[in-house]
Task: structure prediction
Amino acid sequence: MKIKAINGFKDILPDAALSWQRIEQVARDIFARFGMREIRTPLLEKTELFARSIGEATDIVEKEMYTFADKGITMRPEATASILRAFIEHGMHVQRPVQRLYTIGPMFRHERPQKGRLRQFHQMDVEVIGATEPQVDAELMAMGQLLLDSLGVSVSLEINSLGCPACRPDFRDKLIRYLKQHEESLCSDCRRRLTVNPLRALDCKDRNCKALVQDAPSILDSLCNDCQVHFTSVKHALDLLEVTYCVNRFMVRGLDYYTRTTFEFITDALGAQSAVGAGGRYDGLLKQLGGPDLPGIGFALGMERLALLMEQQNEHELHQQPATDLFIAALGPQAAEHSSLLVHHCRKLGIKAAMDYSGRSLKAQMKQAGRLNSRFTLIIGETELAEKEGVLRDMNTQKQQVFSLTPSADKQAKAMANLLAA
Ligand code: ATP
Ligand code: MG
Result:
């Protein structure tokens, strides 16, 4: 019996890995421009960390976590909690008043696998800890937008404010009152969550719930003065940075820790999986986790969804193997020995060089050079070796020239490097 990968866990094969590398390269470059520094935290944390930060009554904690029940540890379903845990544990606020951090890696959630939804998926996660200014919110969204633009992925940005502990309870009560009036039309999930997590009803996918919340009270009408001012300033800062957005008063996010600004990068090109990235403020969370009372904001981009979008939107660019610079076709054992050292020296100098060790015919080796999309092929047979002159063929033009096989292999590699740079 063949053993296959677990449902919801996926291999990223070499062709596909090219787009993943591109995503990471572009992201790291842009993160650096915005002063973000990389942090890497463990894949496993104490279960309590996620229960206390994400919230007991959220989908993630209620049913999606991979938990080793007997050990009280869980595979991280997201990165924010782990980064805050590390921030607190290492007293990182002492070193810098504002920490700008990012991490890239796998997350684990026990969800129903489908297109753009896996059980092991990957996120690029960004957190700014220690800043409350609305300009920071706007700057983060502008960074996300720049990254998505740079990858050739088109999305729209939706924003909302979820208020703070001063104004949200009031809104919650208003919402519960409204929902209770229409309890019979709510789906069973929302009815169950009515008192524990009523905000979830606002972004419930059920058709009846969707219709019902259209007339529900809006959180934006319940914001306290500070939250109101903050939200207005975020919008102003986004306008200044020429970032296009729209306000979605129904956006609530599936994690309890958010306060004030929340946002999502949305696409309609991935069916039901419409969010490419999402995030928001979590001003009380650090303190709640036993850390200093500092504000924070962050967001995460889903890499599977990004890779899918890139494939759909700029297919032609992807899957282009980086071409080989030089293939050496060696004929005979001595030529092969010489070639292996020459290939090694070429590689030391940064040249993408390859050869074949199986002693196949010239024709077969030329075919392989073609498969590797090699720019040049150097042919070295026993005669060429004896006369110290190889034949270098430009694979595009088919033009040939003599390539000197003296003096030493490292000098030959240098000559090759000059030739390739010309
Ligand atoms: P969704 O509404 O699609 O379930 P979410 O609100 O649970 O998304 P977040 O927890 O905010 O997502 O994570 C941020 C991003 O991570 C999402 O926008 C998405 O791109 C990606 N993501 C989340 N869950 C998965 C998953 N199971 N498989 C693949 N990508 C995911
Ligand atoms: Mg989800």
